[in-house]
Design goal:
The structure is a homodimer of 186-residue chains. With 186 residues, chain A is mostly helical. Chain A folds into two domains: 90 residues, Orthogonal Bundle (Arc Repressor Mutant, subunit A); 81 residues. Chain A is 57% helix and 8% strand. Chain A has a three-stranded antiparallel sheet with strand order 1-3-2. In chain A, helix 1 packs across helix 4 and helix 2 packs across helix 3. In chain A, 35% of the residues are buried. Chains A and B meet through helix 1, helix 4, helix 5, helix 6 and helix 7 of A and helix 1, helix 4, helix 5, helix 6 and helix 7 of B. Chain A binds a DNA duplex (28 and 28 nucleotides) through helix 2 and helix 3.
DNA sequence: CCTTTCATGTAATGGGTTACATGATTCG
DNA sequence: CGAATCATGTAACCCATTACATGAAAGG
């Protein structure tokens, strides 16, 4: 665990993390970086394709070309041994906490400028959103837990399980916070 | 509460939120956007000065010039009535949840690639960081709560109090999550 | 036949960090 | 007298979003 110069960006490690779980096309990666992984790290395809090219240039990923359906060939990427080392290294590396940017809290921080009635509406909308996410996480966690591999610390599903558990706990705390806030306008 | 075209960026509303609590120089704003406000919205002075110029151009803030200490004049900014309206409007406006980017969770999501011993170390470091933040939030909350104005929904300290309370709850949940995780490698 | 999905890229723009640049006052 | 603080700005670069662009196969 030491401070290190990275060969890949944060997005690069998100992609390596996906490829460590299985080979995929840029298109596949873009979809997973919208939905399951996107809960904590989102990205669009326009960002993913150039990053894949960089990772390939650094030898952290490699690809086979299949004759594609569109105008270009389809590239199926996989992580290389060097990529696996880089990923594991990065997981264990120390890094100082990055600057946070939470739009919901920023909004609440100025909520004293509106009437209590408006304020309560804002909190209720936020509460509903947290509730939706909580339900989604719970459903996904149930699915992951149904697989016995999710108990094995060296299996990807183990990591899926603990990150989902974290999301769940965070959302539950946020819901309780919203309920508490609603009691604060007398 | 309707979807609206904003006159200011998110950073702009962070600045308006600060100025709504009192006049300040760009330098003052930069400091508060590092420490207390930086817990949920951080920014550097190189971003703040141009944004202040934009806000002034849009008539949302105004400034008085004092003969400054350095090579340039010191500008003390205050929010205008139009700025107050824009801020309150924005607080009540709907906006779809922005893409999340949480480096800590991204890292844990690939933790299955390292040995259980290394993994536990990673979680312990994260746990310590959450503990530190919790302590800081608790101290700040105690200070805010000592002021009776923090109970008045139309006073800025009310909003400081509820956002700190949220930070506290989130950190507490994160700590419990870390403790739970540590039980997961048998 | 039309829409969705698969599949890949590039260009323009905006947001944010790091580094460059200047200089007076205050504190040790 | 040197370092920290007050105080303001600009420039280069990186990261991310939106929009532009193309085209085949599959499904309704």
């Amino acid at each position: 665990m030491s401070l290190r110069e990275s060969t890949a960006s944060n997005l690069g490690f998100a992609i390596l993390g996906l490829l460590a779980r299985g080979a995929a096309t840029g298109y596949d990666l873009a979809q997973r970086l919208e939905r399951p992984v996107g809960y904590f790290w989102a990205a669009r395809h326009s960002q993913i394709y150039p990053e894949l090219a960089r990772l390939a240039g650094a030898g952290l990923v490699a690809y086979d070309e299949e004759a594609g359906r569109g105008p270009r060939t389809t590239k199926r990427y996989r992580i290389t041994p060097a990529g696996q080392v880089a990923l594991a290294d990065w997981v264990a590396s120390e890094f100082e906490p990055q600057p946070v940017r939470d739009l919901e809290v920023l909004r609440l921080w100025s909520i004293w400028t509106v009437t209590p009635e408006t304020a309560r509406k804002v909190v209720q909308v936020a509460r509903a959103r947290h509730g939706e996410l909580l339900a989604r996480y719970q459903a996904e966690l149930a699915e992951v837990e149904s697989d016995p591999d999710s108990g094995d610390p060296r299996h990807p599903l183990f990591a899926s399980r603990i990150t989902l558990e974290g999301g769940l706990r965070t959302r539950r705390a946020a819901l309780e916070w919203c309920d508490w806030m609603l009691t604060q306008w007398e």
